[in-house]
Amino acid sequence: MTASAELLGRGTVGTTYKALLDSRLIVTVKRLDAIRLAGVGREKFERHMESVGALGHPNLVPLRAYFQAKEERLLIYDYLPNGSLSSLVHGTKSSRAKPLHWTSCLKIAEDVAQGLSYIHQAWQLVHGNLKSSNVLLGPDFEACIADYCPVALATIPPLTSNDGQEDADAIAYKAPEARHKSLSYQSVKADVYSFGILLLELLTGKQPSKLPVLPLDEMMEFVRKVREEGEKNGNWREDRDKFGMLTEVAVACSLASPEQRPTMWQVLKMLQEIKEAAVMEECDLVMDSTNSGSS
């Protein structure tokens, strides 16, 4: 409580700080909004946080501790120094964004899918607030999901209300069936929708609110145009099939009907199949060049 703190950002359910403890350990502290959790009793909060604290996966930012007093509720996470996925994709005041290579898009997407699939399958929990600012980059630039599961406790007005609580990008991440309900409405299929939007954000470098809602063929054409505009080195021609496969996954995840969306486990399998196909293709190319050289 007495640690020096630096404001990192204000989110849907609270404010996040970087704090330096007496032990010289740097942590991330999320101060939850008392109004948002006004109806949550002490025991309910403790039960929920004990469940969330039990989660352990390489692609989740670890929750190390929680604290609650009369009007104060804090969550303490590991601090990851490499910033957020949002900063990587869209740039910051001090750094410009660059289009991500398809291998980077695939690696990040697989990391996030691993973390979400674990939350859904192993623990029957829901993230509820997936977005690029809630994906942080670890020491080896692995993608780690942050801010998972606290919105299950929050009471938040519908995203379409004019109360100024949410911006157009936050709304764009939300599944159609969730947009006219409070943010406490959650489902695994709504998480899948958010993942689909996140993947399109990775592929195009566009903010979610700037992404059109298109059928697969038109979305592939949209991604093609964006990539051609952003890549001056001509890599698009040799990589377009890979981008096409990733676009297929993104569109499947962001279908309007929740019943038609795949599960995160199925999404993870799709991404792993794309990676395996790319590895096989690379091996074939190496074999071909070796054979042609020897002949």
UniProtKB/TrEMBL annotation:
Domain Protein kinase: 2-274
Membrane-crossing segments per the record: none
Name of one Pfam family that matches: PK_Tyr_Ser-Thr
GO terms, molecular function: ATP binding; protein kinase activity
InterPro entries: Kinase-like_dom_sf, PRK1-6/SRF4-like, Prot_kinase_dom, Ser-Thr/Tyr_kinase_cat_dom
The protein, known as: Protein kinase domain-containing protein
